[in-house]
Specification:
Layout: H1 12-20, E1 37-40, H2 55-65, E2 73-76, H3 84-97, E3 106-109, E4 128-132, H4 135-145, E5 152-154, H5 158-189, H6 193-200, H7 220-233, H8 240-266
Parallel strand pairs: 1-2, 2-3, 4-5
Antiparallel strand pairs: 3-4
Helix pairs in contact: 2-3, 5-7, 5-8, 7-8
The structure holds nicotinamide-adenine-dinucleotide.
């Protein structure tokens, strides 16, 4: 409201434009009574046991339910396991409001796909997936996003939209783990993996380059695939690819310390009391997100 942005990708001039156009932010839940659309984009972290922590999603749903009216549209954007919109959100909204989803109000899931720090792709030119509880719910959500997003893609339902987001993140998680594992043995074999990746990346089809690093950071890659493996475990078996990728990526910080130790050794120095400069504290360049660093 003061016109200052604390978000890297949103500048003060953009906030100024929004304020001039009538935007206002508030923590007063009573304002929900005058809203036709409620979008939930609260954190979905892991619990102490490593499973999904949906406290904030449930909290937001309970708040919204107290102010839900006939004809309203509720959209969940937080990354979560398939089934959350239908099995967790819908009952809380229905019980708290006495209304029926898909009949009295619209309910949809639409994954947030923002790539922080990406100068080319923002909310307008990144296709937006929407999955509705009913076709009418999907249409209502698509109509909303269609006002400011170039392309809206309708999923079959909420579960498919939830799954699409986790597929995207799991794909990256697994491929980062693949090159991280390769980095360890390529070092032993005297192969420059970065050069090999650059060569492979010249193939115009069928290959996407991922590069090794000291582990994974941020919210999406280290956390979101756990939401999916949690859901799969409820079937009685593990999601082996995700769990293996987790294990390999989790090992990287320790590996980096070992390599640093070896380098110091070659200079006759001990790790203890050594002064080490870390370049790049966040998980990628030009962003301030230190979560899971
Ligand atoms: N940051 C990204 O680039 C990104 C990209 C894709 C998906 N996501 C997903 O979006 C979701 C939110 O992530 P984020 O990075 O924006 O988190 P964030 O922590 O930056 O913002 C979450 C906001 O929710 C508010 N909040 C918390 N509990 C609440 C409650 N009970 N009621 C109302 N508001 C509440 C917090 O005050 C905060 O302003 C997560 O599920 C994340 O996985 C984030």
């Amino acid at each position: 409201n003061a016109g200052h942005s604390h978000i890297d990708d949103v500048g003060d001039p953009e906030v100024g434009e929004m304020l001039a156009a009538g935007f206002t932010s508030s923590a007063d839940e009573n304002l929900l009574d005058s809203a036709r659309t409620m979008i939930i984009c609260v954190p979905t972290p892991l619990s102490d046991e490593g499973g999904p922590d949906l406290t904030a999603v449930k909290g937001a749903a309970t708040t919204i339910a107290r102010h839900l009216h006939t004809g309203d549209l509720v959209i969940l954007e937080s990354t979560t396991y398939p089934g959350t919109t239908d099995e967790v959100l819908r009952p809380l909204l229905e019980q708290g409001s006495g209304l029926v989803a898909g009949v009295d109000f619209h309910l949809a899931f639409s994954p947030e796909r923002i790539d922080p720090g990406n100068p080319h792709y923002g909310v307008a030119n990144t296709p937006k997936i929407v999955g509705g509880l009913t076709p009418g719910c999907a249409q209502a959500a698509a109509a909303l996003y269609g006002k400011f997003v170039d392309q809206v893609v309708q999923a079959k339902g909420t579960r498919e939209a939830e799954m699409a987001k986790l597929l995207e993140n799991t794909y990256r998680h697994v491929n980062i783990a693949l090159v991280n594992e390769m980095a360890v043995f390529c070092h032993e074999l005297g192969i420059d993996l970065w050069d090999a990746i650059d060569c492979a990346a010249t193939k115009p089809f069928g290959f996407q380059a991922f590069r090794p690093g000291p582990g994974v950071g941020g919210h999406c890659i280290p956390i979101d695939p756990n939401y999916l493996s949690y859901k799969v475990r409820s079937l009685g078996y593990p999601f082996r690819f995700v769990e293996l990728a987790q294990e390999i990526n989790d090992r990287m910080p320790r590996y980096i310390v070992e390599r640093a130790q070896q380098l110091l050794n070659t200079h006759g120095q001990a790790l203890k009391n050594a002064h080490i400069l870390l370049l790049g504290v966040t998980y990628k360049a030009d962003i301030a997100d230190q979560r899971e660093t």
